[in-house]
Amino acid sequence: MMNALEEMYQTVILDEYRNPRGKVAKVEAEFQSHQYNPTCGDDITVGITVRDDKILEVVWSGSGCSISLASASIATDLFTQRSIEEAHALIALFKELMNSRGEGLDDKKMDKLENAVAFTGTSKFPGRIKCALLAWLGILGSIEKFGTFSHKLGCE
Q1: Most buried in the list 33, 80, 106, 119, measured by CB within 10 Å?
Q2: Torsion on CA atoms 51, 54, 55, 57, rounded to nearest 10
Q3: What residues in the chain have per-residue pLDDT under 50?
Q4: What is the pTM of this model?
């Protein structure tokens, strides 16, 4: 049986899946990265527009399960108007959340992830973690193509 928090998180994921933000027919952004999950077939291309070390826009196209597409939608809002350094920190936090086995992180870290905390329960299921991470890895790949800060911050 789900508790109230898990129910709320499920509602957030389903809403993001049904009403995705940042989804476009074809990614034509300056820097983009294609990600594929061979385990389940999720397929996504993420693109970013960067000016003066700030991510101005995140767009994506693709297909997949509700977790991967909802995660892409949430990431669209979370990364827009963030510096490259902030983006690396958010990706590291989300990876930490995905390694928490459903335990979550301390409140300060969870606050930084905003709606992405909805994937806390996903971290209980190793087969679903890659689904949640797919768009985030696409953003990381796009940032690496932009070529800034990745070697300094240790994000891989």
Answers
A1: 119
A2: -60
A3: 148-156
A4: 0.89
